[in-house]
Amino acid sequence: MATIRPMLLPLGLMALLAASSAAVAQLEIGFYSKTCPQVEEIVREEMVKIIAAAPSLAGPLLRLHFHDCFVNGCDASVLLDSTKHNVAEKDAKPNKSLRGFGSVERVKAKLEAACPGVVSCADVLTLMSRDAVVLAKGPNWPVALGRRDGRASSAMEASDELPPAYGDIPLLVRIFASKGLNLKDLVVLSGAHTLGTAHCPSYADRLYNATGGGASLDPSLDSEYADKMRLKCKSLNDGSMLSEMDPGSYKTFDTSYYGHVAKRRGLFRSDAALLTDATTRDYVQRVATGKFDAEFFKDFSESMIKITPPLIKMGNVGVLTGAEGEIRKKCYVLN
Ligand code: HEM
Fold first, then answer.
1. Distance of alpha carbon 94 from alpha carbon 326, whole angstroms
2. N or C: which end of the chain has fewer CB within 10 A?
3. CA–CA distance from 120 to each of 69, 79, 324 (Å)?
């Protein structure tokens, strides 16, 4: 059997893995048990109200956490506003469609009232995204806490680090690997597209300009489905229209996303790409049968958070701990 010798790994990746393992070791279940024991109740209580008022916010809150973790680690850098001297992640092109910032501030304000200066915005967002999934009828998982908030946020970095909708398997694998995440994490976490909506420009090229040479349909897209999508997305520049990414159940966390992808009805090229690799295709087709919901729920929980070191999962990528960073009072501005 092939073994991976550390000396064969690129230096950058080794440094990332070493740093991440050390940081994860300091995240703990019950981290706030003495300083803010009611933290999870407060977050859950507010999330119940937020999702009851706006069920479509579950997806955006989960996506916020993903976009936070993939750029500069899970350090709430995505929540910072731009300043006179800095264009922040929030204002990067792929982040223009993020939503839910106001809800994070609302939950953070509740926590500041109960336990001032104690709970980081990075932990608030991590808990909110878990609760968003639970309230959308998805799985629950324990969250190790103790993340600290970063002091840097760069739009350029966000544009460079986030996976693009046109990503094929080699590109997506490379981006996920740069965060310490593997091929299974890619196919499992893509299942988050069971929730939420997308703007027409995120997939219009598949309908109108698949080969770059004018009117052409992406052959990897089911043509009947494409006809329906064209009614919602009328041209390459139709910016305002929204489409459900998992039509029929976009507010419910379930496995029907994989059913759509298996039928060549995944909305983005990155979704369709899951059928081009044997491992990810097997996973999609297996879960698409609807017989392995429990397995997908378990896989999703594990790809979101690993509570035992040294494995890195999405909620643990590049976290700051101990005396690093700060505990912001308001999530949109540095202290
Ligand atoms: C595999 C690479 C991924 C790519 C290329 C990708 C790309 C996208 C794009 C282009 C959108 C639509 C944006 C818009 O037009 O408004 C979107 C939406 C969304 N993504 Fe992903 N994504 C990926 C992975 C993930 C992961 C790992 C998660 C979470 C774990 C996630 C969660 C979501 C959610 C929930 C939405 C819907 C947001 C809403 O309703 O506003 N995505 N994604």
1. 26
2. N
3. 14, 12, 12
- Shared domain for 149 and 213, answered yes or no, is no
Q: How far is CA 306 from CA 20, 131, 141, in A?
A: 12, 17, 10
Please calculate the CA angle 161-163-169 and round it to the nearest 5 degrees: 125
| Cα separation, 72 vs 179, whole angstroms | 10
Residues 175 and 258 both lie in one domain: yes
Domain range for residue 202? 169-304
Mean pLDDT by 10 residues, the chain (335 residues): 33 43 69 98 98 97 98 98 97 97 98 98 98 98 96 97 97 97 97 97 90 78 93 84 93 98 97 98 98 97 83 91 97 98
Dist. CA 63 → ligand 1 center (Å): 6
Residue 113 and residue 227 in one domain: no
Looking at the domain assignment, is residue 196 inside a domain? yes
Ligand 1 centroid distance, CA of 274 (Å): 14
Q: Which residues line the pocket of ligand 1, CB cutoff 6 A? A: 59-60, 62-63, 66, 97, 99, 163-165, 167, 172, 186, 189-190, 192-193, 195-199, 202, 268, 270
Question: What distance in angstroms lies between residue 1's CA and the mean position of ligand 1's atoms?
Answer: 36
Domain co-membership, 118 together with 131: yes
Comparing CA positions, the residue from 32, 59, 28, 34 lying closest to residue 43 is: 32
**Contact (Cβ atoms closer than 8 angstroms) between residue 280 and residue 187:** yes
Q: Are residues 65 and 104 in the same domain?
A: yes
The answer to whether residue 335 sits within a structural domain is no
In a domain, 7, yes or no: no
pTM of the entire structure? 0.93
Catalytic sites, residue numbers: 67
Q: What is the pLDDT of residue 7?
A: 33
Backbone angles phi, psi at 198, to 5 degrees: -135, 150
